[in-house]
Amino acid sequence: MKIALAGAGAFGEKHLDALKLIDDVELVSVVGRTLEPTQKVADKYGIGHATTELADALEQPGLDAVILATPTQLHAAQAIQCLEAGKHVQVEIPLCDRLADGEAVLAKQQETGLVAMVGHTRRFNPS
Q: Any residues with CB less than 8 A from the CB of 29 and at least 6 apart, and which?
């Protein structure tokens, strides 16, 4: 499975650390706010493509899915962008900060039939 990660910050790197332990996962792109630090993350994890634009990542050949570890205010629009591009998407919590945005993501998921999920990373951690 070929995966892109949007969000090259500390939480994005947690995803990258976990993904590199999974067989048959290839990280093909990383997206960040500014190119220089994003390129450093790409180099650290051996990812061949770094960009500041999600649209660039979505054009990577064979890309299957995207993980969004970006600011909350971007989640819904980016999730819809991924689904419209034919990619499965995992969104970090929360999915959105407005009910209408969450409903729009749900509608697009139902339209496409692709996987759109929210990462409840700490769900099984003891309180």
A: 4, 5, 47, 48, 49, 50, 51, 56, 57, 60, 63
